[in-house]
Specification:
The chain contains 2 helices and 8 strands; from the N terminus they run H-E-E-E-E-E-E-H-E-E.
């Protein structure tokens, strides 16, 4: 019994070293819609596409985020949603964020006639491990288009067939 205890204690540093090797996830903003609105605060429903650059699946047990737009804090949010990120794959997660009404109005006025805005998402994902939960920070930037995507319609071309005329 004592022999097994010593062996398990020898493996503990190796197991902890692999926990520290978790690479930061890739977090992209996919969609943003308005939730409930109030006089002083607004709810934003954000859809995040979270990528796992690791060669093993990651049990995601929650996340915290702060979103900046054009260099100013817009909203922050929390999620306790449990999702398993596949190895070298992606998963979509919806998160509820809160923004101040004045901050949103300021950003709408600052947009003017622009069709795109620059954003930054930073925060922490909480990864479940056999030895407890580990916080892994992330920081991503990107551009969000405010215009709907226009799909090009292609009109199928008819094959031309020679017409046959009857002679009279």
């Amino acid at each position: 019994m004592l022999k097994w205890l010593w062996l398990s204690l020898l493996w503990l540093p190796v197991a902890c070293a692999t926990v520290d090797d978790v690479k930061s996830p890739i977090v992209n903003l996919v969609d943003m819609t308005m939730g409930r609105t109030g006089l002083l605060s607004q709810e934003l429903i954000l859809t995040l596409r979270i990528g796992n650059p690791n060669d093993f699946s990651i049990p995601l047990e929650g996340l915290a985020l702060e979103i900046d737009v054009n260099g100013r804090k817009l909203a922050d949010g929390l999620s306790d949603r449990m999702v398993t990120l596949p190895r070298l794959g992606f998963a979509d997660v919806e998160i509820l964020a809160t923004a101040s009404t004045l901050g949103l109005l300021r950003e709408v006025i600052a947009l003017g006639g622009t069709a795109k805005l620059d954003y930054g998402i930073s925060g922490t994902v909480y990864v479940g491990t056999p030895f407890g939960r580990r916080a892994v920070p992330y920081d991503q930037t990107g551009t969000f288009s405010l215009l709907p995507k226009v799909r090009e319609r292609t009109i199928p071309q008819r094959e031309s067939t020679p017409r046959k005329f009857k002679s009279i």
